[in-house]
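Give me structure tokens for this 228-residue protein.
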Amino acid sequence: MTLTSREIAQYIDHTLLKPEATRADVEALIAEADDLGTYSICVSPSMLPLTLPEGSDLKIAVVCGFPSGKHHSSVKAAEAALSAQQGADEIDMVIDVGAAKEGRFDDVEADIRAVREAAPAPVVLKVIIESAALTDDEIVGVSRAAVAAGADFVKTSTGFHPAGGASVEAVALMAKTVDGKLGVKASGGIRTRAVAEAMIAAGATRLGVSGSRQVVFGDEAPGAPSGY
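Here you go.
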């Protein structure tokens, strides 16, 4: 797969979710995302509301129930609703991974549906499933639950789970399961152009990346000008 730097950038949610992130850090994230031409930024909900550069097409994504997913559905729903009111275009929610491990996919679906109803379209809902912590059968089960609950994307990882982040195999399985009904976001451990392109080839339609300049431009990255 051969994509231009601009095409790669349009797959990326330029991400900053470190607990120690400051408002100045988020302002720098927005400036870099605007410079690179990424699709969106992804930040913690406490950073809202945000001001984007005049005329910017940049979308704002925030996380929900992050990073454990062990929040009550009503709490996730309230968090999502507030984020949407404060300007979020997209919500990346974490499922209860334990419910998936127990095969309680109806409960996973209900959890997702609560957030969907609290933040209806046109807000985009992405469902973080922690694919590295799940078996193939569990990945299939939660992906089907996301489809049934009306989500817009399934997403591999928070990037915080000790089991790891995205894998080509998980992305391919998720893409096969949702069969074009939902997008697939690969997130967690994507640090090079080659890995990003492999995820896209496997079926990813969005990428969660913190080191976006390196992914967009590879080894030629550091001085790449605005308007490339």
